[in-house]
Design goal:
Layout lengths: L1 H48 L7
Length: about 55
Amino acid sequence: MESSSNHMFYLVAAYTLVWIMVSAYVLILSKRNQELKDQVKDFETRLRKQGVSIED
Protein backbone atom coordinates (compact mmCIF):
# COMPACT_ATOMS: atom_id res chain seq x y z
CA MET A 1 0.00 0.00 0.00
CA GLU A 2 2.83 2.41 0.67
CA SER A 3 3.94 2.40 -2.94
CA SER A 4 0.40 3.17 -4.11
CA SER A 5 0.09 6.21 -1.85
CA ASN A 6 3.62 7.19 -2.80
CA HIS A 7 2.65 7.13 -6.48
CA MET A 8 -0.43 9.21 -5.72
CA PHE A 9 1.68 11.80 -3.90
CA TYR A 10 3.99 12.16 -6.90
CA LEU A 11 1.03 12.35 -9.27
CA VAL A 12 -0.58 15.15 -7.28
CA ALA A 13 2.77 16.92 -6.94
CA ALA A 14 3.35 16.71 -10.70
CA TYR A 15 -0.11 18.06 -11.55
CA THR A 16 0.33 20.87 -9.05
CA LEU A 17 3.71 21.79 -10.50
CA VAL A 18 2.34 21.77 -14.04
CA TRP A 19 -0.57 24.04 -13.08
CA ILE A 20 1.78 26.44 -11.29
CA MET A 21 4.01 26.58 -14.36
CA VAL A 22 1.08 27.10 -16.74
CA SER A 23 -0.35 29.83 -14.51
CA ALA A 24 3.00 31.61 -14.31
CA TYR A 25 3.37 31.42 -18.11
CA VAL A 26 -0.10 32.89 -18.64
CA LEU A 27 0.63 35.71 -16.20
CA ILE A 28 3.91 36.49 -17.97
CA LEU A 29 2.16 36.53 -21.35
CA SER A 30 -0.59 38.76 -19.98
CA LYS A 31 1.94 41.23 -18.60
CA ARG A 32 3.86 41.27 -21.88
CA ASN A 33 0.64 41.77 -23.83
CA GLN A 34 -0.24 44.80 -21.70
CA GLU A 35 3.26 46.23 -22.21
CA LEU A 36 2.88 45.85 -25.98
CA LYS A 37 -0.54 47.53 -25.90
CA ASP A 38 0.99 50.44 -23.98
CA GLN A 39 3.80 50.72 -26.53
CA VAL A 40 1.31 50.79 -29.41
CA LYS A 41 -0.67 53.56 -27.71
CA ASP A 42 2.55 55.51 -27.17
CA PHE A 43 3.54 55.13 -30.83
CA GLU A 44 0.07 56.20 -31.95
CA THR A 45 0.25 59.28 -29.73
CA ARG A 46 3.67 60.20 -31.12
CA LEU A 47 2.49 59.75 -34.70
CA ARG A 48 -0.63 61.86 -34.13
CA LYS A 49 1.54 64.63 -32.66
CA GLN A 50 3.54 64.55 -35.89
CA GLY A 51 0.35 64.87 -37.92
CA VAL A 52 0.21 61.31 -39.21
CA SER A 53 -3.32 59.98 -39.69
CA ILE A 54 -4.01 56.67 -37.96
CA GLU A 55 -7.09 54.56 -38.59
CA ASP A 56 -8.36 52.55 -35.61
